[in-house]
Amino acid sequence: MFSLEGKVALVTGGNGGIGLGMAGGLAQAGATVVVAGRNTAKSADAVAQLRAAGGRADAMAVDVCDEASVAQLMTDCAARHGRLDVLVNNAGTTVRKKPQDLALDEWQHVLDTNLTSAFVCAKAAHPHLLRAGGGKVINIGSMLSIFGAPYASAYGASKGGVVQLTRSLATAWAGDGIQVNAVLPGWIDTELTQGARQQVQGLYERVLARTPAGRWGQPADLAGIAVFLASAASDFITGTAIPVDGGYSIA
């Protein structure tokens, strides 16, 4: 039920952080994992890690903010590996400023990277998922699609949009045998949140105090949900947004 043997999974931004944690889970479950990102050296390192752990992995370059680059990625992935079964829209960025200090181009960059890219990637993947007989799209949202934060107006807006995009795609593609779900990571120890801890005084301690699990998450904590949502185990689940946050959102 949870096996991904014979499946091909593409993870945008899969060369680090949450993306690499999910890629590790998908590879362990038997999928061939394609790590897609702009930093080719970082992607090569990620592939080496996945292969060293016994997984099948490949790297491809993409700019998720460029529609032509995304279309080429999907075509090349399907041509090289014969199919595409799973798309994980994980690429993301943020600019930590209060809204009155946020320039319009900074706002637009965050929305393009986090939200518009998820739409562009899903749209480009759709025909390939259809040819595979159906498939899975996993969009990475955030707990900031639930909560507000004074320094994350663009990020929160983009991640709220990811949840609504997930619901729209789920209803549109259910008849195609494609399930579309979102994952809402909590406070995970990544380069992105390490930067937040440097900029937001006391953040580390406040997160620890509120999280029932009593710790920050690790990228590997996202491996299991990735396998579940990519596998046949979730065939009757679509349009959901699942927090993976150690209980932060219920405390």
Features:
single chain; 251 residues; alpha/beta; Rossmann fold; seven-stranded parallel sheet
How would you characterize the overall build of this protein?
- By secondary structure, this protein is α/β, with parallel strands linked by helices.
- The protein has one domain: Rossmann fold.
- Helices cover 45% and strands 16% of the residues.
- It contains eight helices and seven strands; from the N terminus they run βαβαβαβαβαβαααβ.
- It has helices spanning 17-28, 40-52, 67-81, 104-131, 153-173, 191-199, 203-210, 223-230, and strands spanning 8-12, 32-37, 56-61, 86-89, 135-140, 178-185, 241-244.
- The protein has a seven-stranded parallel beta sheet with strand order 3-2-1-4-5-6-7, with helices on both faces.
- It is globular, with a radius of gyration of 17 Å.
- The two termini are 32 Å apart.
- The mean pLDDT is 97.
